[in-house]
Amino acid sequence: MKLAQTFGQFGGQYVPPLLVERLQELEQAFLRYKEDAAFKKELAKLLKDYVGRPSPLYFAERLSKQVGNKIYLKREDLNHTGAHKINNTLGQALLAKRMGRKTLIAETGAGQHGVATATAAALMGMDCIIFMGEVDVDKQKMNVYRMELLGAEVRVVKSGLKTLKEAVDEALMHYIEHPEVFYLLGSQVGPHPYPQIVRHFQKVIGEEAKKQILEQEGRLPDEIIACVGGGSNAIGIMSAFIDDKDVGLIGVEPAGKGLKTGKHAATLTLGSPGVIHGFRCMLLQDKDGNPSEVYSIASGLDYPGVSPEHSHLHETGRGEYVTVTDREALAAFHDVTRQEGIIPALETAHALAYLYKMKPEGKIVILNFSGRGDKDVDFVAKHR
Ligand SMILES: Cc1ncc(COP(=O)(O)O)c(C=O)c1O
User: Fold this and answer.
1) pLDDT tens for residues 322-343?
2) What ligand 1 atom has the least distance to the C-alpha of 348?
3) In whole angstroms, what is the distance from residue 141 CA to residue 134 CA?
4) Rounded to a whole number, what is the largest CA-CA distance in the chain?
5) 107, 170, 116, 168: which is closest to 143 by C-alpha?
6) 301 Cα nearest atom in ligand 1
7) Pairing relationship of beta strands 70-75 and 57-59 according to DSSP bridges
8) What's this model's pTM, rounded to 2 decimal places?
9) Minimal CA–CA distance to 72: which of 313, 352, 356?
10) Is residue 27 flagged as an active site residue?
11) How many other C-beta atoms lie within 10 A of the C-beta of residue 301?
């Protein structure tokens, strides 16, 4: 049995021959264990007792009044380690263990995936190396220290723009040179089978949300909203609703300092098909196909590529992708904190900012509250 390698024209495996065999081995292990009763039981127990799932679907009454739609927040911020990333890292770390791997490596932007991977490594008694750009290390100091406390080695990446793309470059290079490690990819990107694996381990978000909204409202929502960096939290919540054609799927990309300034990471909105990090997707690129410099105030959103599945949903029109600037995200960060008493991650604040741009029509909206803002408080305080 094999999984589909592509989503329409996007996805695939653009890697050196050396990696093809290892990715095939990964695919076979994934196919075997995702249906394995003992594996499923172990993961389900961890998600319940260690992560705290199911995460609540919370009706945000004051925010709803403010924006004129009925807003439900899917509280991934309440997960252990503070974001959705842990769902995927525990799944992949269990897979790594079944494959006999002893070292996990990962890239991180905001540090949430790094913390989640270091946590999984500590839990399972594995070694862990995290690659992180120098700019992000500076911005997300608390998460760097958390990773170190958890026993991970944080390798500071000083090439290029010193952010997420370069961290992925270095992690991939390390993976190629060290066949004994397991590369635990943190978003719905990378060569096949990673986008399928990440989708599988994140789809729990949407499955829970669907059940919860049916319990609370007796019907499906009008819109699902999520921020899009690489696309994992968005696909996690959207996947359960893709076949429900009346449910709108809205992904929010970072417009940074403005779409016309060149300082943004609005990949689906302004990109074109291209190849990065071993897969085909919508890409911000120059005329020679080199990834463009990208920017966002949120370290977890500044990636020049994006999930192949979101690229496909965008191309077919099933998904709608919109943008929010740094300024709008910061305003929502402050507003929602005051309205609801919940401090969002700057990534999540992008999705929240879109609520203020929607028409007030009394719609039922589920917003994936992908992470908590503790990691961003210092940064926001300095940049008020
Ligand atoms: C809290 C939070 N939300 C969203 C993202 C964006 O990643 P993705 O698009 O894979 O969900 C990140 C990435 O670091 C994050 O930390």
Assistant:
1) 999 999 999 999 999 999 999 9
2) 3
3) 11
4) 56
5) 116
6) 6
7) antiparallel
8) 0.98
9) 352
10) no
11) 29
